[in-house]
Design a protein that fits this description.
Elements (H helix, E strand, L loop, with lengths): L8 E4 L6 E3 L12 E3 L11 E2 L1 E5 L9 E4 L6 E3 L8 E8 L4 E12 L2
Antiparallel strand pairs: 1-2, 1-3, 3-4, 5-9, 6-7, 6-8, 8-9
């Protein structure tokens, strides 16, 4: 795997079974497995949240849908995606500091 910070979005590589930062502009890295619960250095284990509520520090838009970003390991609202990005729905804003995870790997490119 690679170094991952708590809160980053990851995928699991099929060739080695390890976690890596997911990104919506690379078809080999866009299938979201979950959000890291803990930080992990290269070679360390990382726990993933795959559903339910997660509390963040701030910046969540209530009722905003959050998708996998083209920036590795990050989320973005749909308006930040471009046509080369796949639309992998990860969460919806529940409050100003809570995201509800509902991962839906659509593999549909944004028009």
């Amino acid at each position: 795997g690679e170094a991952i910070a708590a809160g980053e979005v990851v995928y699991i590589d099929a060739s080695d079974g390890k976690a890596y930062l997911a990104e919506s502009d690379d078809a080999d890295k866009d299938e979201v497995a979950g959000i890291a619960i803990n930080s992990a250095a290269l070679g360390q284990s990382v726990a993933l949240l795959t559903g339910g509520d997660v509390t963040v520090t701030s910046g969540v838009g209530v009722s905003t849908f959050y998708f996998l970003s083209a920036t590795a390991g990050k989320l973005a609202p749909e308006s930040d995606l471009v046509s080369s990005n796949t639309k992998q729905l990860v969460a919806v804003g529940k409050s100003a500091t809570v995201l509800t995870l509902r991962i839906w790997n659509t593999s549909i490119a944004k028009p």
